[in-house]
Structures are given as structure tokens and as C-alpha cells.
Amino acid sequence: PSYRALLDTTTRKLRIERQALVAQATGEDWRGVKLVLSTGQPRRNTAGRTPAPWRIGVEPPPQQQVAREDSVARFAMAPAPAAPVAPAAKAMAPERPLFDVNVFQNSFATEFDVTQPIDVPSNGQRVAMPLGQHEETAQVAVRTSPRLEQAAYLVAEIAQPEGVWPAGALQLYRDGAFVGSGQWNAPGNIDGPARVTLSFGRDELVRVSAEPERDNQGSGGFAGSRAERQVQRAYVVENRHRTPIALEVLEAAPVSVNEQVRVATQFSPKPAELAWNRQPGVAMWRTELGAGLRTRFTADYTIGYPKDARLQDR
């Protein structure tokens, strides 16, 4: 399958068009055939994988370990050649012929009965067939991760459409303009209704800047037995649109994985989430930013640990 996602930023309508690419190489042209397509994938494994025992041992002495690594390195194979780069997508997708399609949903697959006869050449040429579409009002926001990249991106979120939607190539359009290609992967969500989030490129009218980070070391505790590291971060976001925007700012806070390391955090303003996307330590500020306005976000971290220990950042 393949998909097209078309976002209208004025109405916030997001339309997902589902398409099939049909090709055959039997040596005989198909003229006026009727097709029934299915999302079933019989080439996949019919049984799932099972776990192997988890065995824990002791590493060999360093000399034996080095000797074994040298032996493996001598017989290592040359790296595989790089995969060929896929050709870039065209700026605008061509208009597809229209077909009347009956859609049948069942528990494990979706079937599409194409009512009109179609022609499929035998030379492997792909014939694109629209199979239907899903449209609803999306939650549109501008999202940024300032510490990683001082840029903002437009994202749209909708509930996962009903039925089976296999992974496939995805073309993205914003207000009629092609913005790029991606991959459709409708996620599952064990904690509630599944949501689909699509990104529609950079928003050049939202300016993001990060102030220089402050990272200070010190000592504390009884007789200076503990060391202390203080990290201060600050970001400024400016909305140059003529209308307000829904703004989302992501920040990764330190998370202790050792009882000897203690972390204290202080955010301003208070984030809407402290475990965004079920990731502990990933905070998200969510606010509405008026036209022509700017706002500032700060994050202060105090990390305490034994003075003779070395912190390990992962």
C-alpha cells in the first residue's frame, strides 16, 4: 500500500488517502479484470518468535578477551556495500484515476472490491488505484526540541483510523504543497486509544533560540563527601505568525538509574507532561503563543553523587 496525507492548516482538516500499487509480470496483459485486494500478508511468518534462555556468566580475563577480539578481527569480512539511494519523490503527485471500491472490514484484514474492470500490463508497470480516504479534524501544533535543534516543526495528530492499515510509503502535503515523504506506521497503544502523529515540515515563522548552557561543579554533604553538578538551560520561542499557535516544547531531563545519584529538577513554567510519550524524564511544555509574541522556558537540574564516583551519561 501507499498513502497520501493532506493537511489544511486553515480548517485543520487532515485527509489520509489510501492507495494500492498493482503490478504483475506473468507475461500476459490483464485486460478488463476485476480485482479484490486485501491487507492480509500471507508472506509473513505465521508463528511468532519464542525467547531463548538468558544466561549470565563472567567475562574472561582481559588478556584472553583481547586475544579473542584480535582473532575475530583478522577474519572479519569486509563491510557490505551501501544500499542504493532511493530516487527523490516528485514535487507533486499526479492525479489518480478514480475507481468505485467496496470496502469490507473484518477482525484481521480489510478487503477492497474494485467494481470497475481495469487493465494491468505484464511488464511490471505499477497501476495506482485509490482505495478510499479518511478525513477528520486534527490537533495541529508547532513542536520543537531546542537543545537538539533550534527549529520548529508542524505536527498533526488524529485518532488511528478504523480497520487494518499496513505500513507503507507516505507522501505529505501541507496546504496543497508537497513537503516530503515518510513512512506510514499506524501505532498501537496499550494505554488507551491509538493516536497517529504526522509531521508536515518546518515552520519558518516560528523562531527558536537556546541560551548558552551553564554547567557548574561543586561539593556538598558531610565534610564534602558528595559532589554536586548544576545544569541550567533556557530557551526562547517567538511566534511570527499573524495568528496564535499551539506550541509544544520538549526537554530531556536527567533520570537517575543508581540510588547513589540524586536528581532535583525545577522547571519554569511547569511542564504539562513529565513523561511524554511514556518516556520518563522527557518533559513537554504545552502553551498557546499569541501572534508576534515570544516566551521563555527554563530548566534547572541539580545532580548529587559520591565525590569519588564518576557520572555516566547515557
Describe, in plain words, how this protein is organized in 3D.
By secondary structure, this protein is mostly beta strands. Among the domains are: about 1-40 and about 100-135 and about 160-200, no CATH class; about 205-305, no CATH class. It has 1 helix and 20 strands. The chain has a 5-stranded mixed sheet, with no helix packed on it. Strand 1 and strand 2 (about 15-20) form a beta hairpin. The radius of gyration is 27 Å and the shape is elongated. The two termini are about 40 Å apart.
Write the layout of secondary structure elements.
Layout: E1 2-8, E2 13-22, E3 30-33, E4 36-38, H1 62-74, E5 101-105, E6 110-114, E7 118-120, E8 127-137, E9 139-144, E10 152-159, E11 168-174, E12 177-184, E13 195-202, E14 206-210, E15 214-220, E16 226-239, E17 245-252, E18 262-268, E19 282-289, E20 294-306
Protein name: DUF4139 domain-containing protein
InterPro entries: CHP02231, DUF4139
Organism: Variovorax paradoxus
